[in-house]
Design a protein that fits this description.
Order of helices and strands: EEHEEHEHEEEEEEHEEEEEEHH
Strand content: 35-45%
Structural class: alpha+beta
Distance between the termini: 32 Å
Helix content: 10-25%
Number of strands: 17
Oligomer: single chain
Shape: elongated
């Protein structure tokens, strides 16, 4: 799952240009990289790696631009659960890239296999029918076997990376990134009498999820981008394309450290600071 890094000679910097802090951090980073002999390029096709400054949304948009180019995420103060470094670690970012002292984590993605066009998602696909604000009548089949159907606001198909985003907000489970699995969750199923027995389902990454509807079209939103219209049924499965993240360490439990540090309350029971408590 992890591969050793390499000294990087050419880097692209992508930031959330709407945030002044992200712009300032990008300028600092550009000067620091240049001082270490690393060339900052405008054309991502020339880059060996990319530094993304912002939050998770910035990183997701960058993935759709960069594909499988290694990405180092630097958080600009937002939640940024996908980002590897915090805003005060710009010097560490430069050190990692210049020396190659980092690790590459390959993250699974999803793909709409049928019908055309084929589109990718790193976090999740949100599937709905009809207009925004209107309920959808959706049914799910897994590898050709009908599983459930209901009236809802949509269906989420998420990767382990995306399982703690929209899927988590829809009461779906968080998947460890080491799992070779995806998760399917209904969004706000209604009424309670029609609530599916399988509101969320963890499935193998190679399984094919079919989404059906009584409407003439399905609308698919990949990673929060603009919706794409398809004729049902829709078939989704794991993709061969991988997103590549630059990590400080090959320790897979760093995932939980990022999650708890950025999403959990600072002090509640004290368990998040159990090392300080001497337990």
């Amino acid at each position: 799952m992890y591969e050793k890094g390499f000294p990087v000679g050419r880097v692209a910097i992508i930031c959330n240009s709407e945030r002044s802090r992200a712009r300032r951090m990008s300028e600092r980073l550009k000067k620091a990289l240049t001082s270490r002999g690393i060339r900052v390029v405008e054309d991502v096709k020339e880059a060996e790696a990319a530094v993304v400054v912002g939050g998770d949304g910035t990183l997701l948009r960058a993935f759709h631009q960069l594909g499988s180019l290694p990405i180092l995420g630097v958080r600009d103060g937002t939640f940024g659960t996908m980002m590897e470094l915090d805003s005060e670690e710009l010097d560490l970012a430069v050190e990692m890239l210049s020396t190659g002292n980092f690790w590459l984590e390959k993250a699974r993605t999803l793909e709409v296999r049928e019908p055309e066009p084929r589109i990718l998602a790193l976090n999740e696909f949100l599937i709905r029918s009809g207009k925004i604000g209107k309920s959808s009548k959706l049914g799910i089949a897994l590898d050709g076997v009908p599983i459930s159907e209901c009236i809802c606001d949509g269906v989420i198909v998420a990767t382990p990376t995306g399982s703690y985003a929209y899927n988590l907000a829809a009461n779906g489970p968080v998947l460890d990134p080491r799992c070779d699995s995806n998760v399917v969750s209904y969004v706000a199923p209604w009424p309670p009498s029609l609530r599916p027995s399988l509101a969320s389902l963890v499935i193998p990454s190679f399984s094919v999820v079919e989404v059906w509807t009584t409407s003439p079209y399905l609308y698919v939103v990949a990673d929060g981008l603009s919706p794409v219209k398809f004729r049902p049924p829709l078939k989704i499965s794991g993709s061969e394309v991988k997103a590549i993240f630059i990590r400080k360490s090959p320790d897979p439990t760093d995932f939980y450290r990022r999650l708890t540090r950025r999403m959990m309350p600072k002090v509640l029971t004290g368990i998040l600071h159990y090392q300080k408590l001497g337990l």
